[in-house]
Amino acid sequence: MPVYYINSYDIINEEEYAKYGPPVIQLLHKYGAEVLASDLQAIAVEGTVKKMNAVIKFPSEAAALQCYDDPEYQPLKAIRWRSTDNCSMTLVHGLE
After folding, report:
1. pTM to 2 decimals?
2. How far is CA 60 from CA 11, 64, 94, in A?
């Protein structure tokens, strides 16, 4: 069953954050993931919108968690932590 990471955060250091995306895309492909949406201009319908909002589809929960724990992701995660604030990453199970 597919799962989806729903990621939202504010980018506080654009220069540092620019180092994050390209290598993350390569890592996502390793786990069969697909970026379904990525938006810097999302529209808040309720609540407060964050600067970056993304939805990433993985083929399984195991693949999503393995990607997050992958040793290659750890330095990239550190870049995200340094360059963003108010981060929310939620793993949501798809419908069968």
Report:
1. 0.91
2. 28, 6, 9
